[in-house]
Amino acid sequence: MKSVTAFLTSVLGAGALMATSTCVDAASFKTSFDCTSSTLSIEKLICRDSQLAMMDRELNRLYRLALTDEHSVPLPDKVMVDQQFWLEERNHCASERDPKTCTISAYAERAHQLRQGSAIVRTKDPDRLTEGPMTYRCPGLNAPLAATFFTTQPGAVYLKWAKSSITLNQVPSDMGNRYTGKDSLGPYSFWQDDGVILFQKPGGKETSCTAEPIS
Question: Are 169 and 146 contacting, i.e. CB atoms less than 8 angstroms apart?
Answer without folding.
Answer: no
